[in-house]
UniProtKB/TrEMBL annotation:
The keyword Cell wall biogenesis/degradation does not apply. InterPro entries: TMEM64 (IPR015414), VTT_dom (IPR032816). Belongs to the TVP38/TMEM64 family. PANTHER family: GOLGI APPARATUS MEMBRANE PROTEIN TVP38-RELATED, TVP38_TMEM64 FAMILY MEMBRANE PROTEIN RV0625C. Signal peptide: none annotated. The chain crosses the membrane at residues 16-35, 47-71, 83-104, 153-177, 197-216. The lineage of its organism: Bacteria, Bacillati, Actinomycetota, Actinomycetes, Mycobacteriales. This is TVP38/TMEM64 family membrane protein. Keywords: Cell membrane, Membrane, Transmembrane, Transmembrane helix. It is found in: Cell membrane. It holds the Pfam family VTT_dom.
């Protein structure tokens, strides 16, 4: 008699359909927000500015949600710098980045965690859990350094794979710091392209991109060695 360790075929199909629907939803959201730009970020910025002293907190909340639905983080960070300057704007951007990571990871965890584990099977799931325990925090940090990767999409994925919330929060804060500084500073100095801060921001962006490429290569090799 042969024992089957994975989910039953009907259950497996259900999990596949669930993940496909979730992926389709994210893809549609990415197209509408990130490509078609159906959200007017300038209108959001004006509405936040109208809240007066509460504007920084309002922008953190609004940006956290907008980032989770794929409004580009660079645009939100630049808006933060434009509204609040390089110092206050940096903290607002960091708060927004962490907020987006929390929102997206919780949705990813709720929508995809059970199905991902069911399809991977218990043995692979245990290996991935062990890998997350060892290096999940630094995986989140490294992802934030990699250029061209959507932070929101990565956070949905981290949530689906069960990365703990504390790792999401701490990793997002640490990893988002360089880019938050870059885009917030560029937004704050947009009217003065010759500002020394502009050149510092560009230098930080270049260093961050190089570090991100090396981190991605190293992380991929580590995953190949220990994740399978």
């Amino acid at each position: 008699m042969i024992e089957y360790d994975g989910p039953a075929p009907t259950s497996r199909r259900r999990h596949i359909v669930r993940l496909v629907v979730f992926a389709g939803f994210l893809l549609g959201m990415f197209y509408l927000i990130g490509v078609a730009r159906v959200v007017d970020v300038d209108a959001v910025r004006r509405a936040v500015a109208a809240t007066g002293p509460l504007a920084p907190l309002a922008y953190v909340g609004a940006s956290a949600v907008l980032g989770a639905i794929f409004v580009p983080g660079s645009m939100l960070a630049a808006g933060s710098g434009l509204l609040f300057g390089p110092v206050v704007g940096l903290f607002v951007t960091l708060g927004s980045s962490v907020g987006t990571a929390v929102v997206a990871s919780r949705i990813g965890h709720r929508a995809g965690r059970e199905s991902a584990r069911a399809l991977l099977g218990p043995k692979r799931s245990e290996r991935i859990d062990a890998l997350i325990d060892r290096s999940g925090l630094w995986a989140v940090v490294a992802q934030r350094f990699v250029p061209g990767v959507s932070d929101a999409l990565a956070s949905y994925t981290f949530g689906a794979f069960g990365v703990p919330l504390w790792q999401i929060i701490v990793g997002s804060f640490i990893g988002s710091l360089p880019r938050a500084f870059v885009y917030t500073t560029l937004g704050a100095t947009v009217s003065d392209g010759s500002s020394p801060l502009t050149y510092v921001a560009i230098a930080v962006w270049c260093v961050t991109a190089v570090v991100g490429v090396f981190a991605a290569r190293r992380g991929y090799r580590h995953w190949r060695e220990h994740g399978h």
